[in-house]
């Protein structure tokens, strides 16, 4: 949820995309707890929510891969969105 919040177009795009990237890193650290609750996840509902929430392919891909605990690929899609907006995520 926070990932989608920060990947939306806002005033300070660079800071929001840095926060989005950080959300993925944080969830990666909390992987144990996330995997424990994974059995309750309805993947069709997750995909429906993602498609309803945004049409941006980078955001869709980041959210979708994150929902499957693929942190490396989710980070990649955040970087792609930053690049598309001309933003360098490195401070």
Structural summary, described in words:
The chain is mainly alpha-helical and 91 residues long. Helices cover 73% and strands 0% of the residues.
Strand residues, percent: under 5%
What is the makeup of the main sheet? none
Tally of individual helices: 6
Quaternary organization: single chain
What is the ordering of alpha helices and beta strands? HHHHHH
Average of pLDDT: 81
**Poorly predicted segments:** none
Which radius of gyration do the C-alpha atoms yield? Answer: 13 Å
- Overall outline: globular
E-strand count: 0
Tell me the span between the first and last alpha carbons. 24 Å
Content-based structural category: mainly alpha
Provide key terms for this protein.
mainly alpha, 6 helices
Q: What would a concise description of this structure say?
A:
With 91 residues, the protein is mainly α. 73% of the residues lie in helices and 0% in strands.
List the helices and strands and how they pair.
Blueprint: H1 2-7, H2 13-29, H3 31-37, H4 43-53, H5 57-67, H6 71-84
Helix pairs in contact: 2-6, 4-5, 5-6
